[in-house]
Design goal:
globular, two-stranded antiparallel ribbon, 4-stranded mixed β-sheet, single chain
């Protein structure tokens, strides 16, 4: 009886590890689809972060700063920002050196694929206004930054 339990436990661990390896490979593939020419160092850097979803594809001639700047007002209107414990999941955003928009989602706020789809649609609507689409966006789950105000 003890041997059977041990065998089942080992098999379960193996399946969990296989599942984790599959998840990692799927996440790498999603990043490569968004950033086709990513090098290994940058891929490992992104893999070290808690990436929730990626959309679009990096291309030249996309004014990501302008797209994000114009989307901010709609983010406010739709209550996507997470201020003082209320509102939505977004607590930060910017354009990274890999030419992607990064959206930081509060890790304690419930988020689904529908949530990121809705945020992405706002970004895409503003991208179309600038004559582009398929905007590269990476959604990252993270905790809020707490500043030490005693300094």
């Amino acid at each position: 009886m003890v041997v059977l339990v041990t065998v089942v436990t080992v098999a379960s661990i193996h399946l969990v590890n296989q599942s984790e390896e599959t998840r990692i490979e799927e996440q790498k593939e999603a990043i490569r689809q968004t950033i086709p020419d990513i090098n290994d160092r940058d891929l490992e850097y992104l893999m070290s972060r808690n990436i929730y979803a990626t959309y679009g594809t990096v291309r030249h001639n996309q004014d990501l700063d302008e797209i994000l700047r114009s989307a901010k007002e709609e983010f406010k209107e739709k209550d996507f920002y997470h201020w003082d414990g209320g509102g939505g999941p977004i607590f930060g955003h910017g354009v990274d050196y890999l030419r992607c928009i990064e959206i930081y989602l509060y890790d304690e706020f419930p988020v689904t694929r529908a949530t990121t789809d809705e945020i992405y649609q706002v970004i895409e609507a503003h991208a179309r206004e600038t004559g582009t689409n398929d905007t590269p966006v990476i959604f990252i789950r993270a905790g809020l930054i707490k500043l030490d105000t005693r300094i």
